[in-house]
Request: fold
Amino acid sequence: MKSYDIGALRRRVVGDDGCGCHEPVAARQVAERTAKKVAPYPASNTEPIVMSAGKGSKCQPFLIVQKDAARFAACNALAEEIGPLNTPKKAFRLLMDAIGDEVNEVFGIVTLDLHLRMKSIAETGRGEPAAVMAPIVPTLQAALIDGAYAVILTHVHPSGIKAEPSQADKDTTKAFAKAFETVNVILLDHVIVGGDVKKRSYFSFAEAGLL
Reply:
């Protein structure tokens, strides 16, 4: 059973500039050069006055992301049974249960923690039986909101035949690889699930050496 090569992926994402836990050297040097050009505020020797106050009486931060408790409990129970999603087959086992008897193409993401354990499963694109949009921005948002260390892209092909990637799937995967690299999140795999509810099959981009 082939495992994901986290070391290689981490080197690809982080590069030679840092370890991933701190800002890259290049970014820090740019910030330092910029800071030298900007005069401090206030532009005098007078100490600034810092005023503090309590929370607003009515206008307070109100955008809250919540997980569906029942669905999370069910997925989490299965994820605990499977363990770390460190192989495509383990990811496929989780996705088979999550997909069920889906009849439309669906695109989504599984977010993972540092130990490759599932944090969440999110659907970011829903289409028709033969097509679906793979939106980059909502998918990146789902990963960042959940504080993902790594992610697995998911795509359902409910065609009843063996899972195989189209050229569009390959192009989409390359675009996502670049997008996740910019936010320093590891794109572990893109798993396409095909077949039907009686006999599922999967295609792993990582397993095929296409990621």
Q: What stands out?
A: Residues 1-31+85-211 form a domain with the Cytidine Deaminase; domain 2 fold (CATH 3.40.140.10). Residues 167-182 form the longest helix (16 residues). DSSP finds six helices and five strands in the chain.
